[in-house]
């Protein structure tokens, strides 16, 4: 038996019943009490002798008994009226009332339910009588109509009314947690700053304060009493903001409006793993950048789906999760990477990410460019991921260029057909990738796990032992037992905390690990009835089921090749028929799961590294560049004096910036031309056109790639000629089949850094080396081409960062004896560029101990702890023992 959503008629009858009950409580009860016992107020105050006399003599006429009944009746009715009025006022104002003590709590719950059903009656009646009204129903998988937006003082729109006014749509929804999201206060935050960052205007801070002052705070922290006094770790409620051009799903029961993520940096995905806007599916021709189409960044919508060359078709939500996992993996790699004991030495290049990982990450980062936002760093991605709540729904595909969103809690979906395993792999991979910090857990019997990954040589069971979000059981019976144990555990917690469901329980006690559970299994005889019974309670306990095979107890869909839904039956069939669901090939799923595993601190498997010595201009190493630094590049031996008047300056350390005659070039340059400039600057002695096309336009066919290259080349020349007023120079020289930047007209900050490191390497003694390295600290102002998303850019970015950090560490070592303070400043600058390098923290702690600064040693260790906590790591024993030795040595010396 499947659970059915309440109809409008049912809601109307419930509302009428609640209205009648309120009428009886507020009108009939006092009339009956007055008719039976009279007024509750006595005509005069009785004397003490009259009271004792009435109590001592026999109550033969039952006068005393009736008086007591009257007094108790009026005493119970008055608080009930006060509670009903308070609940009604709180409901209309859109914020919860104060939670009463346990003896009065049943009366409060009764009043709250009656008021909610009456409000539901009026909202439902309006929807029935008004043909233009929204037909949205109050279901577990559908949200009510959005709150009307109001303009903030600075012109932006927010999803809340003007301060001081109640929101009728919010009051009609009866679902507070869908209108607000929670955020943890950080060091240095103010309500004004949070309102300005999250709502677009600091003047809206009273909304956050009024919604948060009654919020239960973590243990040890006070409630919000004054808006000018907030403490790190406190929780505040932020109103949801309306998004421009947000897609309106056709089926209210499935396409729930998305929940906003709690984040401190711009994030490309939301709770439902869908970006703000939709574009055509990637089955259409390859996308062009905003610069190539003549549109400004931000005018185009971000892609909802990504088609990989391997045949995998994934949503942007999974791409974002994999991109974050690769970023965390890289930070773990930096954390463990020891610094060179001697300088200079060759630096090992970064491992090559698998094709699926590289393509998914680039597609995810490209969504920022298409929205006109800056590319986030690895730390930014982690900060956004930490703020994401546990998933309550998941996007499974696209239908008519709109996302198909299914609720995760209470999901009862069976998939069968040739394309079903790949679709299930996509759902499993995304949930495991988003399971960080006990947010989700997938339970699969071992036989079904082998069936889903049968084409892979991966030991999925062994992989699951180091993936907290993936649990593989011996059988379906063991999986059901695991779910039953979770249901009992969660039911006890809800009973102890008096919370109605698991999402409320997470809010009440964030420290309790309560992941969203999804069981993935095939149908097996008698176990189906037990599994069906469990899924019927899924809405409350945050449990869902994805069945490999036909599932008459819920929704059943036939999946054709490439994820197309041929037919479907059940509650969600209307939204699934005609959709194309995301699907992942076996090898790609294994690569993604391995990346998720390494992001949680596991050692990386041995892999080929890229690029080779011939491909990377090894900074400061004459063994790799001298073959290219021949007579046609004399200026690279030393920086050309500025008085010679090179009119073009290209800055690659940080975001790519172009200056002509000292003025920034901000218009007219295509995105492809912007990327080509950075690529040519990275290869000062030139590259072939074919190599450029492979790295910049890998998805284009040879003819389209050649056209794109010449278009970008001509755009660069035209823009630079207009900016400088020079008509003859080519700026990009083509000779002997290779293209390179003209070094007599263009100077590049990366070249200056390369020359400084090369001079230091060729120095004969430490004094000369120290003198040559000193400019490097000022030249390295940021990561290489921080706004490029190509794989080659990320590879060189990490390589240049590591090379420069090692050079700065060596410079500090050369400076430490004579100028320890200056050496400490150099190390701190290196730490800014590599904030997760544990060996660098140890070097700084040793120098601080030599300067007799024990408090600084502790602060450095605490800074390391806080930064590693973001990637679920902590300082190793060697670092901890070093801190203890440094502090104990100082105490003994005293």
Textual characterization of the structure:
The chain has 30 helices and 22 strands. 46% of the residues lie in helices and 11% in strands. The strands form seven sheets. The chain has a seven-stranded mixed β-sheet, with helices on both faces. β5 and β6 form a beta hairpin. The chain starts with 7 loop residues before the first helix and ends with a helix. By secondary structure, the chain is an alpha/beta fold. It has five domains: 122 residues, no CATH class; 90 residues, no CATH class; 283 residues, P-loop containing nucleotide triphosphate hydrolases (Rossmann fold), CATH 3.40.50; 133 residues, Arc Repressor Mutant, subunit A (Orthogonal Bundle), CATH 1.10.10.10; 104 residues, Alpha Horseshoe (Serine Threonine Protein Phosphatase 5, Tetratricopeptide repeat), CATH 1.25.40. It is globular, with a radius of gyration of 33 Å.
Summarize the model shown.
It contains 30 helices and 22 strands.
Q: In whole angstroms, how far apart are the ends?
A: 77 Å
CATH superfamily label of the largest domain: P-loop containing nucleotide triphosphate hydrolases
Overall structural domain count: 5
Strand content: 5-15%
Helical content, roughly?
40-55%
Mean pLDDT: 75
Number of contiguous helices: 30
Could you name the CATH class of the largest domain?
Answer: Alpha Beta
CATH topology of the largest domain: Rossmann fold
Strand order of the largest sheet: 11-10-12-13-9-14-15
CATH architecture of the largest domain: 3-Layer(aba) Sandwich
> Sheet with the most strands?
7 strands, mixed
Radius of gyration: 33 Å
Taken from the alpha-carbon principal axes, the silhouette is: globular
Beta-strand segment tally = 22
Structural class: alpha/beta
Uncertain residue ranges: 1-7, 123-178, 242-302, 607-644
Region (Disordered): 132-163, 220-298, 598-626
GO molecular function, one term: DNA binding
Transmembrane segments: 12-36, 71-93, 114-133
Domain LysM: 181-238
């Amino acid at each position: 038996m499947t659970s059915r959503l309440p109809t409008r008629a049912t809601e109307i009858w419930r509302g009428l019943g609640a209205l009648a009950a309120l009428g009886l409580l507020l009108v009939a009860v006092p009339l009956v009490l007055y008719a039976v016992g009279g007024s509750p107020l006595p005509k005069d105050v009785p004397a003490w002798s009259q009271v004792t006399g009435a109590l001592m003599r026999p109550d033969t006429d039952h006068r005393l008994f009736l008086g007591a009944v009257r007094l108790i009746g009026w005493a119970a009715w008055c608080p009930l009226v006060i509670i009903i009025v308070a609940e009604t006022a709180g409901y209309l104002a859109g914020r919860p009332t104060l939670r009463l003590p346990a003896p009065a709590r049943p009366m409060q719950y009764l009043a709250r339910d009656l008021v909610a059903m009456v409000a539901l009656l009026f909202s439902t009646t309006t929807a029935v009588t008004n043909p233009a009204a929204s037909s949205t129903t109050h279901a577990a998988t559908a949200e009510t109509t959005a709150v009307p937006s109001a303009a903030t003082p600075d012109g932006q729109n927010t999803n809340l009314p003007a301060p001081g006014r109640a929101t009728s749509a919010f009051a009609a929804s009866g679902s507070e947690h869908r209108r607000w999201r929670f955020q943890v206060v950080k060091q240095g935050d103010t309500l004004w700053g949070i309102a300005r960052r999250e709502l677009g205007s600091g003047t809206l801070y009273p909304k956050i304060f009024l919604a948060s002052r009654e919020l239960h705070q973590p243990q040890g922290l006070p409630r919000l009493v004054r808006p000018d006094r907030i403490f790190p770790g406190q929780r505040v409620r932020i109103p949801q903001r309306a998004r421009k051009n947000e897609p309106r799903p056709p089926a209210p029961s499935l396409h729930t409006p998305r929940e906003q993520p709690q984040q401190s940096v711009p994030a490309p995905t939301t709770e439902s793993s869908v970006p703000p806007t939709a574009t055509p599916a990637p089955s259409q021709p390859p996308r062009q950048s905003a610069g190539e189409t003549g549109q400004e960044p931000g005018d185009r919508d971000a892609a909802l789906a990504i088609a990989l060359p391997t045949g995998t078709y994934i949503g942007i939500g999974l791409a974002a999760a994999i991109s974050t996992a690769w970023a965390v993996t890289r930070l773990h790699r930096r954390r463990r990477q020891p610094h060179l004991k001697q300088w200079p030495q060759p630096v090992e290049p970064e491992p090559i990410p698998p094709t699926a990982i590289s393509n998914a990450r680039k597609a995810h980062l490209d969504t920022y460019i298409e929205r006109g936002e800056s590319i986030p760093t690895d730390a930014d991605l982690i900060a956004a991921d930490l703020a994401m709540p546990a998933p309550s729904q998941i996007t499974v595909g696209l239908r008519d260029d709109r996302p198909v969103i299914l609720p995760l809690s209470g999901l009862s979906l069976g998939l069968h057909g040739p394309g079903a395993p790949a679709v299930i792999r996509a759902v499993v991979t995304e949930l495991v990738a988003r399971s960080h910090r006990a947010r989700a857990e997938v339970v699969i019997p071992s036989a079904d796990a082998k069936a889903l990954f049968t084409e892979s040589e991966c030991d999925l069971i062994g992989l699951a032992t180091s993936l907290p979000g993936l649990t593989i059981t011996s059988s379906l019976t063991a999986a059901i037992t695991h779910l039953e144990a979770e249901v009992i555990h969660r039911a006890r917690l809800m009973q102890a905390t008096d919370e109605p469901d698991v999402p409320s329980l997470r809010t009440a006690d964030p420290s309790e690990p309560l992941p969203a559970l999804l069981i993935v299994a095939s149908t097996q005889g008698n176990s189906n009835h037990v599994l069906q019974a469990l899924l019927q309670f899924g809405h409350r306990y945050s449990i869902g089921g994805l069945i490999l095979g036909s599932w008459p107890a819920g929704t059943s869909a036939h999946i054709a090749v490439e994820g197309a839904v041929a037919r479907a039956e059940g509650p969600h069939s209307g939204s699934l028929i005609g959709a194309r669901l995301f699907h992942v090939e076996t090898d790609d799923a294994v690569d993604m799961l391995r990346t998720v595993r390494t992001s949680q601190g596991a050692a990386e498997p041995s892999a080929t590294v890229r690029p080779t010595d011939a491909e990377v201009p090894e900074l400061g190493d004459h063994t790799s560049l001298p073959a290219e630094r021949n007579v046609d590049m004399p200026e690279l031996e030393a920086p050309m004096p500025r008085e010679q008047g090179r009119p073009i300056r290209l800055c690659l350390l940080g975001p790519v910036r172009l200056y002509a005659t000292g003025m920034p070039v901000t218009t007219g340059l295509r995105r492809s031309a912007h990327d080509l400039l950075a690529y040519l600057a990275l290869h000062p002695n030139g590259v072939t056109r074919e190599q450029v096309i492979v790295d910049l336009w890998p998805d284009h066919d040879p003819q389209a790639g050649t056209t794109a290259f010449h278009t970008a080349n001509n755009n660069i020349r035209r823009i630079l000629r207009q900016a400088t007023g020079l008509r003859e120079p080519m700026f990009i020289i083509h000779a002997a089949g290779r293209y390179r930047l003209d070094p007599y007209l263009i100077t590049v900050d990366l070249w200056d850094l390369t020359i400084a490191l090369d001079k230091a390497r060729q120095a004969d003694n430490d004094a000369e080396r120290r003198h040559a390295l000193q400019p490097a600290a000022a030249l390295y102002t940021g990561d290489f081409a921080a706004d490029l998303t190509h794989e080659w850019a990320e590879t060189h970015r990490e390589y240049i960062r590591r090379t420069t950090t090692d050079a700065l560490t060596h410079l500090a070592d050369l400076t430490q004896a004579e100028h320890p303070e200056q050496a400490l400043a150099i190390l701190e600058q290196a730490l800014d560029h590599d904030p997760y390098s544990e060996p660098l923290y140890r070097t700084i702690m040793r120098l601080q101990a030599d300067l007799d600064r024990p408090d600084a040693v502790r602060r450095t260790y605490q800074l390391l702890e806080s930064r590693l906590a973001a990637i679920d790591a902590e300082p190793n024993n060697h670092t901890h023992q070093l801190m203890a030795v440094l502090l104990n040595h100082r105490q003994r010396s005293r």
